[in-house]
């Protein structure tokens, strides 16, 4: 496979005073197009307002930084106004309308990753704005707007032309936006930094899985996700997705070494990953990471709602299930070597602490 798998940074697509929208381009990261995956980031400054929109793709949103308010309108449902903060994951199925607002001093940054297989452009999200200079109102003639919404000429003209901003605007500091409703958050968001850990290895790392059990909406989105945190100098076991799912990974914090091995035992990628990098591991390829001293954390989407992985090292590694005689023959090593190999990593699963 002659694809460029090296991690990439997002590039600014649009934005002004209220904030900016960034996206990863499939021309620079070909696996986006091949895997029909889109990835983008929204960064809102204080009083920044991302205008209401819907997308041609289902996706998972993850709050990388800050706190704010999100409006979510599922098809034929009432608006849910929820408070969002760093660590929140939100499933956004097809047809959902969203808006985003930041009233805090800290920049609000939201990551979006999702499935573009039904979108207009493989590997890219296409957003349809309800308002603004590129909103749907600007495409209809005044008489259509008047008739559809039963308004007079002046109102129709205002609806079509008053909002000059595109995608993101900055609101007046005194403008009152809707306040979040605590009840609205239930079933809409899960904070991955506060959720119960699915795996926790002392001095090594932990993981929180996002699936249909803790956030049922991911079933409608058709993909799961996880937040993985590696301690300094710890290692993540070599492993692969065993249900043909693609794993799209965004490096949230820290840095570390990464290796990917593919067909015919060839190492297809060896690199240093850093915060802000996005990478995609092809189906069934084996990946492993070793954190730098400051640690390494990443958020991934997996293109199935309840993903399954096979780990090749550790107490739950696939090697442990293979007969000793088979391993001895497969590696062409004496029994003593096979016994030594099997005796290691009997207590550590998935994450390995730094060597003593």
Give a short synopsis of this structure.
With 356 residues, the chain is mainly beta.
Structural description of this entry:
Strand 1 (11-16) and strand 2 (19-23) form a beta hairpin. The protein has two domains: 8-132 and 167-185, Sandwich (Jelly Rolls); 193-309, Jelly Rolls, CATH 2.60.120. The protein has helices at 30-35, 142-149, 153-161, 218-221, 324-331, 335-343, and strands at residues 11-16, 19-23, 37-44, 48-55, 58-65, 67-73, 80-85, 88-92, 97-102, 108-115, 127-129, 168-170, 189-191, 199-201, 205-210, 224-230, 235-241, 247-261, 267-274, 278-281, 286-302, 309-311, 351-352. The two termini are 37 Å apart. By secondary structure, the chain is mostly beta strands. Strands 14, 15, 16, 17, 18, 19, 20, 21, 22 and 23 form a ten-stranded antiparallel β-sheet that branches. Helix 2 (142-149) crosses helix 3 and helix 5 packs across helix 6.
Salient structural properties:
Jelly Rolls, mainly beta, 356 residues, 6 helices, 23 strands
Order of helices and strands: EEHEEEEEEEEEHHEEEEHEEEEEEEHHE
Overall 3D form: elongated
Q: What is the rounded Rg?
A: 23 Å
**What is the CATH domain class of the largest domain?**
Mainly Beta
Mean pLDDT across all amino acids: 92
Ranges where pLDDT stays below 50 over 5 or more residues in a row are none
Total helix count? 6
Q: How would a textbook summarize the main sheet? A: 10 strands, antiparallel
**Topology-level CATH name of the largest domain:** Jelly Rolls
Query: Helical proportion?
Result: 10-25%
Question: What separation lies between the terminal Cα atoms?
Answer: 37 Å
The tally of structural domains comes to: 2
> How many beta-strand runs?
23
- Give the amount of beta strand, in percent: 35-45%
């Amino acid at each position: 496979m002659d694809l460029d798998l090296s991690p990439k940074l997002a590039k600014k697509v649009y934005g002004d005073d209220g904030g900016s929208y960034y996206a990863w381009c499939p021309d620079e990261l070909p696996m986006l197009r091949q895997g029909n995956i889109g990835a983008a980031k929204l960064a809102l400054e204080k009083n920044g307002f991302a205008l209401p929109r819907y997308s041609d793709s289902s996706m998972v949103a993850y709050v990388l930084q800050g706190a704010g308010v999100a409006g979510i309108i599922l098809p034929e449902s009432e608006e849910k106004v929820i408070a969002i903060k760093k660590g929140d994951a939100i499933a956004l199925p097809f047809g959902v309308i969203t808006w985003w607002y930041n009233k805090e001093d800290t920049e609000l940054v939201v990551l979006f990753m999702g499935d573009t297989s039904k979108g207009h452009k493989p590997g890219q999200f296409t957003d349809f704005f309800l308002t603004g200079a590129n909103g749907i109102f600007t495409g209809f003639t005044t008489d259509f707007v008047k008739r559809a919404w039963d308004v007079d000429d002046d109102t129709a003209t205002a609806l079509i032309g008053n909002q000059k901003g595109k995608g993101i605007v900055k609101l007046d500091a005194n403008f009152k936006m809707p306040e979040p409703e605590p009840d609205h958050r239930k079933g809409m968001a899960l904070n991955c930094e506060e959720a119960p850990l699915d795996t926790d290895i002392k001095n090594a790392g932990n993981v929180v899985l996002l699936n249909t059990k803790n956030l049922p909406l991911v079933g409608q989105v058709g993909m799961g996700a996880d937040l993985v945190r590696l301690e300094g100098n710890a290692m993540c076991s070599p492993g692969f997705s065993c249900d043909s799912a693609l794993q799209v990974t965004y490096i949230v914090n820290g840095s570390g070494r990464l290796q990917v091995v593919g067909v015919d035992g060839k190492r297809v990628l060896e690199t240093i990953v850093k915060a802000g990098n996005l990478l995609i591991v092809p189906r069934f390829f084996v990946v492993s990471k070793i954190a730098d001293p400051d640690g390494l954390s990443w958020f991934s989407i997996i293109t199935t709602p309840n993903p399954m992985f096979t780990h090749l090292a550790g107490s739950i590694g696939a090697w442990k299930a293979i007969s000793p005689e088979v391993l001895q023959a497969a590696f062409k090593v004496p029994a003593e070597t096979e016994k030594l190999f099997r005796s290691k990593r009997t207590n550590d699963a998935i994450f390995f602490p730094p060597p003593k």
